[in-house]
Amino acid sequence: MNAEIIAVGSELLLGQIANTNAQFLSAQLAELGINVYFHTVVGDNADRLEKAVKVAQTRANLIIFTGGLGPTKDDLTKETIARLLQRELVIDKEALHSIEAYFARTGRTMTENNKKQALVLQGSTVFRNEHGMAPGMAMTVGAITYMLLPGPPKEMQPMFSKYGRPFLMEKLDRHERIESRVLRFFGIGESQLETEIEDLIEQQSNPTIAPLAGDGEVTLRLTAKHHSEIEAKKLLDQTEQAILTRVGRYFYGYNDDTLFKNTVKLLKEKKKTVAAAESLTGGLFLTELTAIPGASQVVRGGVVCYTNEVKEKVLHVPASVLATDGAVSERCAKLLAENVRALCGADIGISFTGVAGPDPLEGKSVGTVYIGISTSENETAVHALALSGPRDAIRTRTAKYGCSIILKKLAAACL
Amino acid sequence: MNAEIIAVGSELLLGQIANTNAQFLSAQLAELGINVYFHTVVGDNADRLEKAVKVAQTRANLIIFTGGLGPTKDDLTKETIARLLQRELVIDKEALHSIEAYFARTGRTMTENNKKQALVLQGSTVFRNEHGMAPGMAMTVGAITYMLLPGPPKEMQPMFSKYGRPFLMEKLDRHERIESRVLRFFGIGESQLETEIEDLIEQQSNPTIAPLAGDGEVTLRLTAKHHSEIEAKKLLDQTEQAILTRVGRYFYGYNDDTLFKNTVKLLKEKKKTVAAAESLTGGLFLTELTAIPGASQVVRGGVVCYTNEVKEKVLHVPASVLATDGAVSERCAKLLAENVRALCGADIGISFTGVAGPDPLEGKSVGTVYIGISTSENETAVHALALSGPRDAIRTRTAKYGCSIILKKLAAACL
């Protein structure tokens, strides 16, 4: 199967957004062993879209469209494909119901143009949109399979994963299995990780090993092919074992794991609760934890102590400590962790104080960070970090460090 | 001039990176008033690249290539264009010198294939690469202008700005100015906004009006052309005026403004401070405000009151209120806002309580949200919302609503 991905949307041609949909779908199709030979971007214009489809029909037998399924006159992907394939557009009742329900629920008035979103190509397999209104669809006409997906990544990605990918796998009816697994690391740089497993990367053929760095983390994607799923997984297991023998201390999870998800998960398993005192992170640590459904079982809450007054009044850090050691100090971090644990009645109290930048603070340079961790049965520990990068990166990495500290404490069963 | 941007590189088709080069160039060309009608991505394969160029020649008179100018056998953009245009590739002496100098400077051995990088199309205008080795180039053959730029954004962007853009401006010989302006709206859906200004959109020609929705916001990009910059701006002003007469109550800013940036900015201007009690948002509101440098002047801090115990113990919501009205209630929101303002010593106290989902809470459905706002001189107000969407969207929109409420209060000068 040779694929072309056509993104429809003038905002892409104006440079307002990058075509991250093509990136996502390309990575997904690569995993399925489908060759992607072309990406095309075209604006909200019926003639030019028609031209682009005709070109794609000469060079691909799978054409995936993103965008142009919305309610406005500008949205014309379905209409153009229907005309080219000489198919009718028909109302999908389930989609219409869910659009009407959406408007009823939000108390907003449903304008007539919203009904257009429920139109689908007659005879197509309809993909429900669980994160928006416009459904997706797929159908094979002659030798070519057409798949239409919505433009917003938040709608497109889950729809493709849940409906588009299984549709293609059935279509492929493949006997060779492709198994892949992502190993996630924190606290080690990409070049150091690569150096430590250089010989493994050089010997790689099956599985292949592909490193990728981003957001202070490094991942390794292992991909194995075998006609037996069990054998493919065995190949992955062996390579994973060889890698973790070298760099296992930086490893924290697989695939879609995140430090935040794993922290919530392990807290639940160990039946422990957490509270946080956040200065430089401004609430980021708790925001990330509470973004995970079910976090309420383990997150008690916390204090965003952005000013010294709040550190003193709400978290009882003595004015003398703030005056002598300063807010960015080991002593302050220790007290914040201990006191937020007591205040919120949690098993674990964690604190973040430091300099996110752009300017130094209290004579301490940007990237100076203290993380305090206080547990019911142990002494409080303080970790001092010297981070670099812009404000956002420092804040994010600090919050992630907090998770890695909690994960290590919980795993070591010292709680 | 109608442009097509062709990115060459298999890493794009494997989904390893997004085509940010096309985004950058599209925004640049839009500023110059050059229409971009298509983007194409093709791999490091001579046959498919040739096909892509032949398609582009039928629909564009400016074709900009990014990537494929490096030293390896995979890099074949120049070679393919030379063959198609029947031009020779010749060594550019200045480029060769600078490549040799680079290797001498770094003490590395220059392999033979690096010389390939100094080859350029005979008769082309050569663009020096001040951030890498491979030069860029441009030439017009018949009615079509070809421009070749390197793939790494760090090399491509400065090269385009310094050499590519002036080359095009001279080519255009344009006296016409292009001015554009983005208007940002919150609290109104895309289809409702379009319905309210439908006639303006339909009449559009100069300026053009392009709507875009995302993250609970809608933007309108106005673009005007005129030989006088002042007149172009006047055209924008008139259209802006006509739009704001209709939907001004949802308007909050221009261009790169965000609700969070504008909230910090207006708080600074009015010399007011804010504190927040965050239940369903889990710290998101304060995280977003403190992401902005200088937020420490206006953000006092706050409490993430994720559990009823923290609401009761830290923010003094009486157990009776939590038992009768519940945590997700107008009364609770009111008390949280008042008490967090007092606790943190801020001018404005804001509170967020509600159901982010995925499950209902206290018999209240997902998306039920109360935002309390307490100011020094006024009664406390509570806004009740019924939002929809996934957990993340509800949290984000709730935090943004908080900003819009604060912005309105500050603008109304009732503080």
Automatic annotation (TrEMBL), chains A, B:
Protein name per UniProt: Putative competence-damage inducible protein
CDD domains: cinA
Family of this protein: Belongs to the CinA family.
Occurrences of domain MoaB/Mog (ranges): 4-170
Gene3D superfamilies: 3.30.70.2860, CinA-like, MoaB/Mog-like domain
Pfam families tied to this protein: CinA (PF02464), CinA_KH (PF18146), MoCF_biosynth (PF00994)
PANTHER family (UniProt xref): NICOTINAMIDE-NUCLEOTIDE AMIDOHYDROLASE PNCC, NMN AMIDOHYDROLASE-LIKE PROTEIN YFAY
InterPro entries per UniProt: CinA (IPR050101), CinA-like_C (IPR036653), CinA_C (IPR008136), CinA_KH (IPR041424), Competence-induced_CinA (IPR008135), MoaB/Mog-like_dom_sf (IPR036425), MoaB/Mog_dom (IPR001453)
SUPFAM superfamilies xrefs: CinA-like, Molybdenum cofactor biosynthesis proteins
